[in-house]
Amino acid sequence: MTIENCTTIDNNDVETTIKHEEGEVLLVDFWATWCPPCQRPMAHNQEMLDKHGKDWGKTVRIIGLSIDSDCKKVVDHVKAKGWTAIEHYFRGKSKASETYGVQGVPHVLLVDKSGTIVFKGHPAQRPDLAADLTALAKGEVPAGLEVEKAAEGGQEEVAKDNVPEDAKELDNNTVSVDMDKYHNEIGPKMIASMKDVKLGNLQRCFNVLVSTQYLMGSGKCVGTYQNYRVVVGKQEDLDKVKKVIDDHMPEDMKFEKVE
Question: Based on CB atoms within 10 Å of each CB, which residue in 110, 185, 223, 230 is the most buried?
């Protein structure tokens, strides 16, 4: 497994490659500073390294690959949170998201010693990643991954006890179409409509679609599909931003709104 054309967050001027070496176990975490669901998994990555790093040695690498648009924000965020044991990279011009089918964050790749991706998806689908990494470091297959590797089409089949209680049946194709439309059409129009809003005065401002999906043994896809709308600032600016978002987000999208 290789990810080309990214950079380290400490040297954003020089492109580099994330490359798996024989005998290594990798956890690659696609994330963003503006993504609320990404924060706990990244904190957990740091916790795992604090607790198991000495035992794992150089066999296990945990890599954060930020999809932010501003590398400096990543640097400041990582330092503020103290997530310094993780290897941090900035996606930059890399096409890693397209290559590995990353349509939303957080999204992790778990790579065994031979370089095979044995799991890809939301980190919550693996309830004990530390145990997974320890097993892979020993050359063992973690519980449940035998099924996921055998599933057709590169999709993972997960045990029912890993699925959250609020998961509902999803039409994966519909969610994918929604996200493509949001990325290519709705988002750019929304940003263009905010030219009267002083976005620089807002401490936070983002509107994202987040979908977590689980393929069951029956072939049915269940999960969550949410639209996070988070804006922090003066009430006058909040009202303007809220109106723009409400005006542009189509009513026929079946997401759960989280404000």
Answer: 110
Q: Which domain holds residue 203?
A: 168-258
Domain-located, residue 22 = yes
Residues 134 and 185 in one domain: no
CATH code, 53 = 3.40.30.10
Question: Across the chain, what does the average pLDDT equal?
Answer: 86
Distance CA 255, CA 90 (A): 29
In the structure encoding, which two tokens stand for residue 30, read together?
Answer: 């696609």
Give the amino acid at 119: F
pLDDT tens, 193-235? 888 777 777 877 888 888 877 766 566 778 888 898 888 888 9
Phi first, then psi: give them for residue 94, nearest 5 degrees: -65, 145
Q: Is the dihedral of CA 182, 187, 188, 189 positive or negative?
A: positive
- The whole-angstrom separation of Cα 45 and Cα 52 is 10
- Distance between CA 131 and CA 137 in Å, rounded? 10
Residue 161 is assigned to a structural domain of this protein: no
> What domain count does the chain have?
2
Express each pLDDT in 23-80 by its tens digit.
999 999 999 998 888 999 999 999 999 999 999 999 999 999 999 988 999 999 999 9
Q: Do 130 and 181 fall into the same domain? A: no
Task: Work out whether the CA dihedral 132, 163, 34, 193 comes out positive or negative.
Answer: positive
Categorise residue 11: left if φ over 0, alpha if ψ from -120 to 50, beta otherwise.
Answer: beta
Within a domain: 125: yes
